Every structure is written in C-alpha cells, then in structure tokens.
C-alpha cells in the first residue's frame, strides 16, 4: 500500500506554480508603462470671450484682469509690462483683490504655444477662476 | 506494469491553458478600460507642461496639431480644409453636443496657429474648449 503512494508522490509537482502570476504581472507592467504618459495628460479649460455689447447698461461692468503675452519673455498685465518670471509677483495681488477672478489673455501670434500655456498655467495656479482667450 | 500505468494515468498530460486564459482576460479588461482614453491620434506631439490640471478624466474630442503641421481629429488624420467639416460631423454625433474639445498642440507651434485652430473649432460648433497639457512633476525639496 505504501509503495505506490510514495512513487506517485515523488512524481507530483509540489511547488506553487508562479508562471501565471509572473505572466499577469509582466502584462500589467507593460500596460502601465504604455498608459502612464496618457494618464499624465491634462488640460486647461478656455472660456469663450463674451462680446462687449453683451454687457447691458443695467449690468455692472465685469472686472477682468487683462494679460497680453507680447513675446516669449515679456507679458503685459494691465498697463505694466513685466518679464514672464515676474508674472506671479504682479498678477498674484491683482487676483487676490479681484472678486470675479476672471482673466482675459491675449497672445501675440509669434509666441510659442508652450509660453502661452505657461502663462495660462501661472494664472490658474495663482487662483484665476476663469481664463478667457481673445484674438487680436 | 499495472502499477506504472496507474501512476501514468494520474499525471497531467494536457496543456495547461489557465495562464493563457488569465493573461487574455486581464488584457481584455484593460483594453475595455483604456479604450475610451485612446481617442487621440498617434502623432508625435510634445505637449506643453503645466502644474494645474482639470477636466482630465472627461470624455473629449481632440484636435492634434504637430510642429510639422499635421492635423488630426481624434484618431482621424485630416488636412486644414477638412478640419471644420470633420469636426462638425464628430460634434453632430449623439451625446457630443456639449463635449469638451481639446487642442493637443506641440509646445513649439506658434500661437497664431493655435488661435486659428480655436477659431475653427468654435466655428464648427464647439461649446467648450481646452488646451492639452502634460503634468509637470516637480521634485520635492
């Protein structure tokens, strides 16, 4: 009775089969590597400019902060022209004192899209609630 | 001989299909989950970096513009003349009336081109617009 049982036992596989686990893990790793750049994509919403005639005589004029991106390094906030690096210093107090926190952005045609997005990003990071882009 | 054949009958002689089924099911599940995200064209675009993020999980229609001038609406490559009709047909589909239209443009594209793209999107009937960014991961001090 003992002999056949021992023989069968010696032929059996006693290790835990790791192959399915490793297969699934490797597939997950590959898919995560592919999907990570897509997951890191985000966006900044742009509001549509309201026509000037939209504000009726009874409505209070909207308090908007106007930014114009003049070149890759210079930005005009209101009437003040500052470098892009100085934008938070000028825009921060304006936004904190603004009730609507609405920012209207103009951009010169030759400016790189990356610079334009950086200005939008800075305005958003400083607390702008609505970003409106207007053309020239 | 009888004992030996008995031992043989206990052995598993069939191909173990469990791992392949495991992997196939995982792949199917992941494809089902990621399929809605794969709406953008596979054009090489270096998106501008940004710290703020919003509307990242929202279903959208994307307009891709490479630095070389190639254009695509979702995964469909188009030329400039076909951009507006293509976008109009995409926006006319059921459930797309108020969909977010995201402009995925390379950070090196001049803003004038982006302005023209935004104007085309608005003319095609886009109600909500956004520019795509890549999440900037800042190193912790």
What is the assembly state of the chains in this entry?
A: heterodimer
Instruction: Give the strand content of chain B.
Output: 15-25%
Please state the average pLDDT score of chain A.
78
Number of domains of chain B: 2
Largest sheet data of chain B: 6 strands, mixed
**How many strands appear in the DSSP assignment of chain B?**
6
Shape by Cα distribution of chain A: elongated
Quickly name the level 1 CATH class of the domain at 62-133 in chain A: Alpha Beta
- What portion of the residues of chain A fall into strands of 2 or more residues? 15-25%
Structural class of chain A: alpha/beta
Q: N-to-C SSE series of chain B?
A: HHEEEEHEHE
Low-confidence parts of chain B, pLDDT < 50 over ≥5 residues?
A: none
Rg of chain A, rounded, reads 30 Å
**Spatial extent as radius of gyration of chain B:** 24 Å
Total DSSP E strands of chain A? 6
Record the strand order, biggest sheet of chain A: 4-3-2-5-6
Relative helix content of chain B? 25-40%
What does this structure look like?
The complex is a heterodimer of chains A (136) and B (141). Chain A is of the alpha/beta class and 136 residues long. Chain A has a domain at 62-133: Nucleotidyltransferase, domain 5, CATH 3.30.420. Helices cover 40% and strands 22% of the residues of chain A. Chain A is built from four helices and six strands; from the N terminus they run ααββββαβαβ. Chain A has a five-stranded mixed beta sheet with strand order 4-3-2-5-6, covered by helices on one side. The radius of gyration of chain A is 30 Å and the shape is elongated. By secondary structure, chain B is α/β, with parallel strands linked by helices. Chain B folds into two domains: 2-35; 40-135, no CATH class. Chain B is 36% helix and 20% strand. Chain B contains four helices and six strands; from the N terminus they run H-H-E-E-E-E-H-E-H-E. Chain B has a six-stranded mixed beta sheet, covered by helices on one side. The model of chain B has no long low-confidence stretch (mean pLDDT 81). Chains A and B meet through helix 1, helix 2, strand 1 and helix 4 of A and helix 1, helix 2, strand 1, strand 5 and helix 4 of B.
């Amino acid at each position: 009775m003992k002999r056949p049982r021992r023989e069968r036992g010696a032929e059996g596989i006693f290790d835990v089969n790791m192959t399915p686990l490793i297969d699934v893990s490797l597939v997950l790793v590959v898919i995560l590597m592919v999907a990570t750049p897509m997951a890191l994509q985000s966006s900044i919403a742009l509001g549509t400019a309201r026509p000037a005639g939209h504000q009726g005589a009874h409505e209070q004029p909207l308090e908007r902060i106007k930014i114009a991106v003049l070149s890759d390094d210079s930005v005009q906030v209101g009437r003040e022209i500052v470098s892009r690096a100085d934008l938070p210093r000028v825009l921060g107090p304006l936004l904190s004192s603004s009730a609507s926190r609405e920012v209207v952005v103009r951009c010169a045609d030759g400016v790189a899209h990356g610079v334009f997005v950086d200005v939008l990003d800075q305005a958003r990071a400083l607390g702008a609630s609505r970003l409106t882009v207007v053309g020239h | 001989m009888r004992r030996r054949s008995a031992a043989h009958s206990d052995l598993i002689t069939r191909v173990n299909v469990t791992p392949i089924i495991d992997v196939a099911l995982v792949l199917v599940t992941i494809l089902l989950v990621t399929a809605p995200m794969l709406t953008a064209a596979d054009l090489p675009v270096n998106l501008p970096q940004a710290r703020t993020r919003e509307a990242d999980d929202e279903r959208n229609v994307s307009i891709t513009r490479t630095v070389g001038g190639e254009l695509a609406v979702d995964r469909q490559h188009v030329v400039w003349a076909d951009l507006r009709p293509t976008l109009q047909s995409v926006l006319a589909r059921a459930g797309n009336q108020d969909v977010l239209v995201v402009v995925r443009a390379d950070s090196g594209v001049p803003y004038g081109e982006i302005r023209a793209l935004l104007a085309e999107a608005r003319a095609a009937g886009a109600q909500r617009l956004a520019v795509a960014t890549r999440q900037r991961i800042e190193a912790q001090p």
